[in-house]
């Protein structure tokens, strides 16, 4: 690449998550070859989004308003709080169109390896919400990983004494999953939590 | 995604080559969560690059100057023109640091399937360069695909009568390639163009 502008752009793109040097080169070329149709609209869109979108002071979601659309929606059940690691998890649960409660975004999970400690997450804020906001149930919707479950246990401990019910997502066979390919841990969890069909 | 700004940004990112809906969501979140460090610098860099970078009127390369740094470099051998499909190929050849000639970017290859016809490529421009600019050799560095080789044949036909030598890249076993994994076509080409070691 002869132009330092292009190589700098390629380097910046390659630093984004999930984009390697090869895709960064391809992206930069695509953008520069489609300036009117792609690059300028994308620049404007990024600038507008960066300016308009803010973090919800109640749950930590990103939205144009604060509190966010979910927290300020009167149809949402505010006594039900779903605790998730990050915004992608919130989006995933919203896509189910099943959940009508509100959220609390932790901002990560505890991790000795990555040096994430309780103060790095919004756990104190969650305890305040549990104590004050008429919350009746807190769903710990954290990943079924060691770090996720450690975090869930830690939060359950911290909430001891708060007048709330604490629940977690069911563990078991994924829908469409074949038993033969399941790991033992999932199979054990599915057996332990088996549900009655009849009799 | 509750915010239309975020969903619009995700949709635009997902339209870029090599980025699916999942990576687009991840990218948008990464950008919005790192506005100062990543998103604003990237916006500025994209705007600056879009403004500064232009297409070389001689070879079709992208650069800050026109003619581009390669075409205007007096150390480059202007009697040697390497014809490539696109700028990524130019970059790949430049990375070898072996080639000291100049380039001609076709802007694609002929393709009946994709409806790419000779007029869509810069073939006429190449013929003019071959006739006027003291060009002695034209290297057709096109992909060893059906479309690439069709295009090479077509260009060689069009250049019949021009006072230039026309060459193409060698075909054979890729360096580090295992014979066992090679396709028959490559093996046949490598056998036909075998070179003498001794005797």
Question: Any overview of this molecule?
Answer:
Two copies of one chain form a homodimer. Chain A has 199 residues and is of the alpha/beta class. Chain A has seven helices and six strands, in the order αααβββαβαβαβα. Chain A has helices at 4-14, 21-33, 35-52, 87-95, 123-132, 146-158, 184-192, and strands at 54-55, 62-63, 77-84, 101-105, 137-140, 165-168. In chain A, strands 4-3-5-6 form a four-stranded parallel β-sheet. A two-stranded antiparallel ribbon of chain A has the order 1-2. In chain A, helix 1 crosses helix 2. The radius of gyration of chain A is 22 Å and the shape is globular. Chain A starts with a helix and ends in a 7-residue tail after the last helix. At the A-B interface, helix 1, helix 2, helix 3, strand 2 and helix 4 of A face helix 1, helix 2, helix 3, strand 2 and helix 5 of B.
